Each structure stands twice: as C-alpha cells, then as structure tokens.
Amino acid sequence: MIRPFSFAPAGLAGAYRIRPQRFSDGRGCLCKDYSREIFREAGIDFCPAETFWTESVRGVLRGLHFQRGQDKLVRCVSGRVYDVLADLRPGSATFGRWRAFELSGGSGECLYLPDGVAHGYLALERSVVAYSCGTGYDPAREGGVRWDDPGLAVEWPLEGDARPILSERDRALPGLRELCGGAP
C-alpha cells in the first residue's frame, strides 16, 4: 500500500502537520518524510542544513526551544511524545498561541515549524525525536520560553501533581513576557 504525502495547517501561521509518504507491505514499511520538491509544491520552502535526534525517558520534558532564523521538521522516530508548538513571533496573527499533537514512531507524522515557533515535548514513554533544521546550530541565536509559563498556559498531560524531568537550562528559561520585553 502506498500513502501519499499530506499537509494540514497546524493551527499556527506557517506551521504544518505532515503525513509523510509511506510504502507498506507484509514486511513493514518504508517512509519518506521529506522531499524538497513535494514540500515546495505544498508551499513550504525548506532545505535541511543538519539533522539530529534526542532520546528521552518517560517524563522528560524538553523545551520550549527555538533558534532565531531557523525552521524545523520534527518527528518521533520511536515511542510517543506530547509535542507542543508555541508561536513567539510578535507580529504573527497567532502570537502567544500554542498547539499540541501526539506524535509516535508508528504514525510517522511530522511537524513543520517556521522560524519563530518554539518547540517542546513531553516523553509519554521512552522516545526518540528527530529534528531536521533549515540552518546549522548557532548557540548565539538559540532561546526558549518556560514550559509552564502562565502567559502561554500550555496544558501538559501530567498525571496528578507529577513534575516533569527538566534540564537546568530549561528550568532557567524566561517567561513569554520577559522574552518579548514586557509585551504579553
């Protein structure tokens, strides 16, 4: 069975939820999650400069991160994650809004994030998340906003009073108001 690419708006200006091309048979499947030509036909001018991945145990929360000038294609290779996109572009019609999606290795779905949209996820089980980035990593251009910032009010699926496993860096991220110089 062959399933073609599909692109659906992800609820934030310029962000897309993507079902990649998938070829399945009795042995399993082959998945093509990126084609420059197909993306351009869908109106997305994305050309990856580098790719990397993270592995996280259940309960790890990474984010919300961004790098100025960088767009991304994100997918869960194995496991399951609660993936969050947050629009941090002050001039955007969807500024300050967030959207969440459950991604899993089995679905193969991807998320395309334009420049200025932050990304984070909560590992719902041991998971591997792959990132293809439109520019190379530059620590001088990276930033983020707190996962629990009341200005964004992201609804993370934490059980009871459970706290996520965070890096020291993520604990120290500013809130949306601080990041944007006092603007809400």
Can you put this structure into words, describing what you see?
By secondary structure, the chain is mostly beta strands. The protein has a single domain (2-141, 158-179), classed as Jelly Rolls (Sandwich), CATH 2.60.120. Helices cover 8% and strands 42% of the residues. It has helices at residues 36-41, 168-171, 176-179, and strands at residues 2-3, 6-9, 16-19, 21-25, 28-32, 50-56, 61-67, 72-78, 80-87, 98-104, 110-113, 117-123, 127-133, 142-144. The strands form 3 sheets. A 6-stranded antiparallel sheet has the order 2-3-11-8-13-6, with no helix packed on it. The longest helix has 6 residues, at 36-41. The protein is globular. The termini are far apart. One of its GO terms (biological process) is dTDP-rhamnose biosynthetic process. The active site is at residues 65, 131. This is dTDP-4-keto-6-deoxy-D-glucose epimerase.
| Biggest β-sheet strands, sense, barrel | 6 strands, antiparallel
Task: Provide the gyration radius in Å.
Answer: 16 Å
Distance between the termini: 48 Å
* Order of H and E elements: EEEEEHEEEEEEEEEHH
GO molecular function: dTDP-4-dehydrorhamnose 3,5-epimerase activity
InterPro entries: RmlC-like, RmlC-like_jellyroll, RmlC_Cupin_sf
GO biological process, one term: polysaccharide biosynthetic process
Pfam families: dTDP_sugar_isom
